[in-house]
Write a structure and sequence with these properties.
The protein is an alpha/beta fold and 464 residues long. The protein contains 13 helices and 14 strands. The strands form three sheets. Strands 5-4-3-2-1-7-6 form a seven-stranded parallel beta sheet. The protein has a four-stranded antiparallel beta sheet with strand order 8-9-14-11. The relative contact order is 0.12.
């Protein structure tokens, strides 16, 4: 017999929510348990990619003040600066929903976005299909009149970007999806029952997720926002079993670890552990550092100052540290309400692409090495390509002496070769006398002759 919350639903929806049949052939099948799901091997493309772009865009981009959590801070927590902002700039009685028509995306050009992301050197992109405010960037059947097709842009934003990414770039297309919604009445009712009721996931979240996957085939599904509810309330394991066994992206999709209270950094595909997570040491499980160029917000802020943005030097350091420790970097931008990417974000993306054109060899498709960073020289980080017998040493400060000391590599005369990426000529090196390591004679280059700025990489062949 069906549980009460499933009675009365349309038959097609029931098929999606019920257990699936065994697939034909001998394919590995995953059960709807964490024990089974956590054994799934992460598709290889994700670890090889190393660098992705996160996009936080929604109705919160209209007030563009403080944070993408604007609605919550204004209406729920009633933080004074948010209350004052509304009183000073909008008429009495103005509701958050009234921002919907102002989210116009008038200048949104998916092809321009795709070209920029390609130029950044990123290998995947993740768009917020729905944040905690509940507004969907596609015409969701389960979000009537609170979606981008019915309100505001009157366009299927998800579809436009998906097509642009897949037809004109080599990036993988991914989607962020918030499980809960701050003020949805069904969620609030479920919450008041200590989540014994499951009205919201059954009638809203689960059917919406199935719709999203079947329609747009995201190869990254970035869950977020459990609202304090356990994974059993969300039926996360049931959904993920379907995703891995029978969805149109079953072989290539990667997922994160935010599938219910207590699952983060414990269950799922790769781990995110927390926002801006960067442990600085090797982890036994694949992980991702999701971080944002604006230090204080994920969504666009009109009140951001220049010092609120990370510099390209800081971003390169984040990338190098993260990849050396086995992680991927997911770097966030926040477009404006009319669909433009502000010059500061565009500059950072293009700068990262310029750096990766020279040093991408030390980033993409690399493995971690026996040491993640150097013991003698600060801000030096290592990656490797074992099959090619290559180790890469990335350093963020060019020594004024012209000599770079590497305390970790064990070199062999007549076998070890050292090159500076973007320069190409073999460099002279000598072994350190007192311990393992080498001193490399860097080439004498003017600032215009430097292969790049903001950080450099040495390729070391045949070192231990």
């Amino acid at each position: 017999m069906l549980p009460p919350e499933l009675r009365g639903l349309a038959f097609p929806l029931l098929l999606l929510l019920l257990p699936t049949q065994c697939p034909a052939g001998g394919a590995v099948r995953f059960d709807p348990t964490w024990e089974s799901l956590d054994r799934r091997q992460l598709p290889a493309w994700f670890d090889q990619a190393k660098f992705g772009i996160f996009i936080h865009w929604g109705v919160f981009s209209v007030p563009s003040f403080g944070s993408e959590w604007f609605w919550w801070y204004w209406q729920k927590e009633k933080i004074q600066k948010f209350v004052d902002f509304m009183e000073n700039n909008y008429p009495p009685g103005f509701k958050y929903e009234d921002f919907g028509p102002q989210f116009t995306a008038k200048f949104f050009n998916a092809n321009q976005w795709a070209d920029l992301f390609q130029a950044s050197g990123a290998k995947y992109v993740v768009l917020t299909s729905k944040h905690h405010e509940g507004f969907t960037l596609w015409g969701s059947k389960y979000s009537w009149n609170w979606n981008a097709v019915d309100e505001g842009p009157v366009r299927d934003i998800v579809k436009e970007l998906e097509v642009a990414i897949r037809t004109s770039t080599d990036l993988r297309f991914g989607l962020y999806y918030s499980l809960f919604e701050w003020f949805h009445p069904l969620f609030l009712d479920d919450q008041s029952s200590s989540f014994r009721k499951r009205q919201f996931p059954v009638s809203k979240m689960l059917p919406e997720l199935y719709e999203l996957v079947n329609k747009y085939r995201p190869e990254v599904l970035w869950a977020d926002g459990d609202g304090g509810a356990p994974d059993g309330y969300w039926n996360s394991t049931g959904f993920l079993a379907w995703l891995y066994n029978e969805s149109p992206v079953q072989d290539t999709v990667v997922t994160n670890d935010r599938w219910g209270a207590g699952s983060i950094c414990k269950h799922g595909g790769y781990y995110t552990c927390s926002d801006r997570y960067n442990p600085g040491h090797l982890l036994p499980h694949k992980w991702e550092n999701c971080m944002t160029i604006d230090k204080l917000s994920w969504g666009y802020r009109r009140n951001a100052g220049i010092r609120d943005y990370l510099t390209i030097e800081e971003l390169v350091k984040q990338l190098v540290q993260t990849v050396s420790c086995g992680g991927n970097l997911l770097m966030n931008i926040g477009p404006t309400q009319d669909g433009t990417i502000s010059p500061i974000f565009e500059e950072r993306l293009r700068q990262m692409g310029t750096w990766l054109k020279v040093n991408g060899e030390a980033i993409y498709e690399t493995s971690t090495w026996r040491s993640q960073n150097d013991t003698l020289t600060p801000d030096m980080w290592y990656t490797s390509k074992p099959k090619e017998k290559l180790v890469y040493a990335m350093f963020l400060k060019w020594p004024t002496s012209g000599q770079l000391i590497l305390g970790q590599p064990k070199a062999t005369l007549g076998s070890t070769e050292v090159k500076l990426l973007g320069h190409g000529q073999p460099l002279k090196w000598t072994s350190l006398e007192v311990q393992n390591g080498i001193t490399v004679e860097l080439p004498h280059l003017t600032s215009h002759q430097m292969p790049c700025k903001w950080g450099w990489a040495l390729a070391l062949t045949n070192v231990m």
